[in-house]
Write a structure and sequence with these properties.
- The chain is an alpha/beta fold and 407 residues long.
- It folds into 2 domains: 185 residues, no CATH class; 203 residues, no CATH class.
- It contains 4 helices and 25 strands.
- It has a 17-stranded parallel beta sheet that branches. Strands 1, 2, 3, 4, 5, 6, 7 and 25 form an 8-stranded mixed beta sheet that branches.
- A hairpin with a 4-residue loop joins strand 6 and strand 7.
- It is elongated and about 80 Å long.
């Protein structure tokens, strides 16, 4: 091959090798750049995920603090937090170490400030509890301030509303969860029997007793109705005693919203049934201990909430059914034969006593419809007792009225 041709080929080969080297260097640089970028993104993602994880953990730690506060504010708690100044806006309760509580405003020299150690040591939170107030600084309560049975925020009646702020911390995050919570107000109609429809009380052995006394409190009306005079009838010679002359019957009372009352409690039922014109026999939700006579109050340490959704029909409880707590019926309630209840009975419709057997209720009965005691030789007794009424609500876990994460 001529030398000129050889030089030409060498030149071309040399150029190609140079181009290949250049392309390789560009590709290598690109890969390095991509690799560096990928590394930066991966590190950022890891940091984001880590921060999210710690933030979530701090959030759950803060929530745990609110739950400890709720548990310890409840009456009967093993390690109670005592509210000794329920009408004072300056009252504060702290859960946490002295140092942590002090950082959140605790002052050992302030008689309104009280501190408790947490009942656990695994989680790092500090809780501050105070009374909710309105814009004018008045204490706010959760309760029925107008007698209609519906609880609202107000400044005159009910249970304190507690603002509970929990400060949760983990290794690298802090969260604050704040709830409004309150003890469950009592459900007291002010009578042994409250009705909202024309009602007949009949039978020589029927006793509706609102005299109270001892653990059953001050006297109340035997029967109370939202209707006018003459709408509560007596057939035979039933006994209706309580506040005022006998028969102790009060008219034109505030109309209680029984449907709203049932709705507010049914979600907490530990026994719930959906029925349609049904009969349940021999039901047992606790065993009340009877007094010396059927005219005396019974007692029971069990607290159930039993809810029947009848779809607008009825439920009949028969065959010696009994229980302790709050019995809620969406619809009509029929009681057939022997029956024993300690606490509160509420039905949005009528309540009818049928057949023989002893029927004993200690507490109160509220009917959105009529109540007809048709005893047919049996014994029916409704004995008002404030202790039996308040027992069903005051020991329950605190209600959460609102919840938020504070930024």
């Amino acid at each position: 091959m001529p030398k000129s041709r050889q030089r030409s080929v060498k030149s071309i080969c040399g150029n190609e090798r140079g181009m290949v080297l250049a392309v390789a260097l560009v590709l290598l640089a690109t890969l390095v750049l991509f690799g560096t970028t990928a590394f930066v993104i991966t590190s950022t993602d890891i940091k984001i995920v880590g921060n999210y994880k710690w933030g979530q953990q701090a959030h759950y730690v803060a929530e745990a603090g609110t739950e400890e506060a709720r548990a310890r504010l409840r009456l009967g708690a093993a390690n109670p937090i005592i509210d000794d100044n329920p009408t004072a806006a300056g009252w504060r309760a702290f859960i946490g170490s002295f140092t942590d509580a002090q950082a959140k405003g605790f002052s050992s020299g302030n008689l309104m400030h009280h501190r408790w150690d947490s009942i656990q040591t695994a989680l790092n939170y500090t809780v501050v509890i105070r009374h909710q107030t309105d814009g004018a600084g008045n204490i706010l309560y959760w309760g029925d301030d107008n007698g209609d049975g519906v609880n609202t925020r107000n400044t005159t009646a009910g249970k304190n509303i507690y603002i509970t702020a929990s400060y949760g911390a983990t290794a690298s995050a802090n969260k604050i969860v704040e709830i409004e919570c309150t003890k469950v107000p009592s459900i007291d109609s002010g009578a042994a029997l409250y009705v909202e429809a024309p009602t007949t009380i009949q039978g020589n052995s029927t006793n509706i007793i609102g005299t109270g006394g001892g653990r059953c409190g001050s006297p109340v009306k035997g029967v109370l109705t939202a209707l006018g005079p003459g709408t509560v009838h007596r057939d035979g010679n039933p006994t209706i005693v309580g506040a005022g002359p006998s028969p102790s019957i009060g008219y034109n009372a505030t109309n209680m919203d029984i449907q709203a009352m049932v709705n507010s409690l049914k979600g907490f039922a530990n026994y719930a049934y959906t029925v349609n014109s049904a009969t349940h026999t021999g039901m047992n939700w606790g065993t009340p201990i009877l007094g010396a006579t059927l005219q005396e109050p019974s007692s029971c340490g069990v607290r159930n909430i039993v809810y029947y959704n009848t779809g607008g029909t009825y439920i009949t409880l028969a065959g010696g059914s009994q229980g302790c707590g709050i019995l809620l019926v969406d619809g009509d309630l029929n009681v057939h034969g022997s029956f024993n209840w300690y606490g509160i009975i509420m039905a949005t419709g009528s309540i009818t006593y049928l057949g023989g057997g002893n029927k004993q209720v200690t507490g109160e009965v509220l009917a959105g419809g009529s109540t007809n005691a048709d005893l047919m030789g049996g014994n029916a007794n409704i004995v008002y007792c404030s202790e039996a009424i308040t027992d069903q609500t005051q020991y329950r876990p605190l209600l959460v009225l609102s919840w938020k994460e504070v930024m």
